[in-house]
UniProtKB/TrEMBL annotation:
<keyword id="KW-0804">Transcription</keyword>
<feature type="domain" description="OmpR/PhoB-type">
    <location>
        <begin position="134"/>
        <end position="233"/>
    </location>
</feature>
<dbReference type="GO" id="GO:0000156">
    <property type="term" value="F:phosphorelay response regulator activity"/>
</dbReference>
<dbReference type="GO" id="GO:0005829">
    <property type="term" value="C:cytosol"/>
</dbReference>
<keyword id="KW-0963">Cytoplasm</keyword>
<dbReference type="InterPro" id="IPR039420">
    <property type="entry name" value="WalR-like"/>
</dbReference>
<dbReference type="InterPro" id="IPR001789">
    <property type="entry name" value="Sig_transdc_resp-reg_receiver"/>
</dbReference>
<dbReference type="Pfam" id="PF00486">
    <property type="entry name" value="Trans_reg_C"/>
</dbReference>
<protein>
    <submittedName>
        <fullName>DNA-binding response regulator</fullName>
    </submittedName>
</protein>
<keyword id="KW-0597">Phosphoprotein</keyword>
<dbReference type="Pfam" id="PF00072">
    <property type="entry name" value="Response_reg"/>
</dbReference>
<dbReference type="InterPro" id="IPR036388">
    <property type="entry name" value="WH-like_DNA-bd_sf"/>
</dbReference>
<dbReference type="GO" id="GO:0000976">
    <property type="term" value="F:transcription cis-regulatory region binding"/>
</dbReference>
<dbReference type="GO" id="GO:0006355">
    <property type="term" value="P:regulation of DNA-templated transcription"/>
</dbReference>
<feature type="DNA-binding region" description="OmpR/PhoB-type">
    <location>
        <begin position="134"/>
        <end position="233"/>
    </location>
</feature>
<keyword id="KW-0805">Transcription regulation</keyword>
<keyword id="KW-0238">DNA-binding</keyword>
Amino acid sequence: MNAFAQLPARLLIIEDDAVLGGHLRDFLSDRKYQVSLCADGAVGLGEAASGQYDLVLLDILLPGLNGLELLAELRKQCPVPVIVVSALGDEEARIRGLISGADDYLPKPFSMTELGVRIDVVLRRVAMERNLRARVEESGGLHLNDAEQIALYNGDDLGLTTTEFRLLQVLLEHREQVLSKPFLYQAVLHRGCGRHDRSLDLHVSHLRRKLRQGGLPDSPVRTVWGQGYTLITEHL
């Protein structure tokens, strides 16, 4: 049973393998999720961007529209959490998935039990963030709307993913303070970090790129070598 049985979460599976798609649908339905299945990338993009779903499971190798292209386009339209599940399990593929806006990446083959846990973790994080009182964090031209999960710089939407928004929010809440990687893993990703885990670094890199694209010539997110990251607000 999933952690949200009182109000079943709505999941969209975008997977062209009919056998795997069926197994995923049955497994997640048994966990009391409401599950929809789509086998085409272009159709899946329209469904994922509709605002009807709480989480998307996305394959990369799809007909109609490549999964990474789909994800990049989806991030322009909707902040719905996305877990990529793909046979492309090497480090480069994982990096591409996270940079494209995935909240998590699970290489095939994977255990259904692990998938279920990862889904619960992402949904729990989203639920906790939605239950926070609506507020707007501001610093200079930077505005973070917690209720809408939108970050603006000088009025322009930065197009952050859910994870990037949370990362920027935590850094802004602790502005000018050095936050360690273990702390950020727990506060942002809600898990511990492994010795070779680069997930946080990738999210930081992606956030910095979007801040630059949004008009900040010098990223306020600074690395403090051997300690962690800090947000400098002097020039915001």
